[in-house]
Predict the 3D structure of the following.
Amino acid sequence: MGYKTIIEDNIDILVVGAGLGGTGAAFEARYWGRDKKIVIAEKANIMRSGAVAQGLYAINCYMGTRFGENNPEDHVRYARIDLMGMVREDLLFDMARHVDSTVHNFEEWGLPIMRNEKKGSFLREGRWQIMIHGESYKPIVAEAAKKSADKVFNRICVTHLLMDESKENRVAGAVGFNVRTGNYHVFKSKTVICGAGGASNIFKPRSIGEGAGRVWYAPWSSGSAYGLMIEAGAKMTQMENRIVLARFKDGYGPVGAYFLHLKTYTQNAYGEEYESKWFPELQKMVGKEYLDPEVSHRTHRPIPTCLRNHAIISEVNAGRGPIHMVTMEAFQDPHLEEIGWHNFLGMTVGQAVLWAATDVDPKYENPELTTSEPYVMGSHATGCGAWCSGPEDVSPPEYFWGYNRMTTVEGLFGAGDAVGGTPHAFSSGSFTEGRLAAKAACKYIDDGKAEGIRVSDDQINRRKEQIYKPLETYRVYSNEVVAGTVNPNFINPRQGLDRLQKLMDEYCGGFGVNYMTNDKLLNIGLKKMYILGQDLEKVAASDIHELLRAWELKHRFLTSESVFQHTLFRKETRWPGYYYRGDAMKLDDKNWHVLTVSRRDPETGEYTMEKAPLYHLVGDVEKAPPVEHH
Amino acid sequence: MPTFVYMTRCDGCGECVDICPSDIMHIDKKLRRAYNIEPNMCWECYSCVKACPHQAIDVRGYADFAPLGHSVRVLRDEEKGTIAWRIKFRNGKKDMELLAPITTKPWGKHIPKLAEVPPPSQEMRDSQLLFNEPKYIRMDEGGLHTLESNGLEIKKGVQY
């Protein structure tokens, strides 16, 4: 094949994937690594890539320590309650104590953050959320990353990490191909910070045909954070903890500002409040420690996101759907109406398009809500990702192995979706994690931990052959048939993706089975996954664009396999409303008050699962009442 | 709903190809103009619509749930620092114009070049602090929050 091999050598810090986590890493790396070579490899164009490509209308993680609003531990407690206890409190505390400095930098760079004119503080949407005009959020942070990086390689689909051949389990860079030229790119680097994204489109989406791109998380979020790290043998945590979102139907427009700022609320099809009636039964499933509506009513303690989903799912199953968002009251105020529309235009334009197309004017009609297909990611109300070391001054021994945000592969760091156990980081927290990882990566190099890395030509050539194999498969077999997409020798990436989504939906608890699965279904699913894995060796690509889709599919597959393994391992229903284990319908703290940790052996593909202890740094009850934020 | 490109307005400049996060805006080899090659991988993020210098790109709602006859148009201006939207309903009853700022400063001018700021001391390197900390976190003299400063202890087991 006529593709050139282009080698970028002597890199100190390679940032793979420059969304919010990756841009934070590249930016901060220059401060600590003055003469270090910092390189970004990004699948798209960093000016509009990652989950924040189209913008945001809120920053969902901001303490307001400067204004006496919250302490980091308050946020830890909040995230823990929302995730039914299953979080890495050391990592969360660390992120929360730094996140404000990230936001204050953003403001200085020109990001328009709304102000509370009376108090002088930022305008609060909720206790943790502040409101911004964030259409250009991504281009602004990308400028910061560009100013720090030596080189930015846009349009490089990174397919694999390179591994050191002189020391086992140490990273040595990454490889991929340019989705425009097709050329093979080799990045030899002392450290890698994985800022790649979580996974949309691994479960069958509710939308069909043309609308399959209208997913909640970006369709280009191909689970590459997990695909890359799992393949390198990094341990993963909480991969069973997929998230289901209650959103405006079809458009998946965000509801945060509607609930928190516009004070809209939900009701069933008959105009009734429905949530509270599902709570007594639900409390029996999860225990009073996790659901206590009385305490939640009296204090600011939230009802976990998954449990609120459960009420929606149950009410719809009982025949009283759809659930409506009551907007007709709030939207009578022209100022709030304008905010409601700006909120979509700033981050989910498609929802505005949908309401314009269907003549839904929320001033005169309460729009429908629905629960989405599941997603696997690590920065919203879910904490999938790699098992990473915490900071020295916070983490207990089981959570600490030398360098903050380093995975169990030496020299491989994570940020954003890549880091497990850190939900509710959102955009600002992900950028902050990138900064933390960058400082730690510089220290790792300065400590001499990256000396003597060796990468053989054999490894480089082997990966090259692997990367282009789908093009070769197509070339060899496509002319065996007259025309069309049906071929007995291969499947194309779309066909493979359809199969994966159907399989995940039916056996791993997608929307099509009301988020239900059990040990039997999971075991059947895993068998089918094994066969799908074999067929993916025969995936074919007719051009470079399809080769991109082929590799995205392989990353989604590795992510999905991990989700299956973790879901099977945790024999309880920890998050009703995200998914249900029909064979273990209760939350079981006696056996499962632990984090799940997995490793896939890179040689054999075999999984080993273990339980890791949970550490808590704050009690359940908040001592001082939280400050008023409106 | 993906995006589509008006034949008479596109000059094939490739700005949309360069910016699309999903790699679905490509140039048609015969017509030398851009088009959406994979509508079911389009997020309607409007990155290409905003980047097009000729307003040649528009969006038509996803065919599986959005009826025809609506319009959401946009003009983004980095120099003015604004973004202007116009939303038209299918039934013609609603026609809204909305304007929002996209930046508060001249584009890109206030982002520091970290290679040029004073380097961190060894003491700072050995601490938990990041660039601009602690002054960018809090206005008082206090330092970074720690378990000790906040009276916390990390304990194994359940939290209740």
Notes: DSSP finds 17 helices and 20 strands in chain A. Residues 500 and 557 of chain A are 7 Å apart (CA to CA).
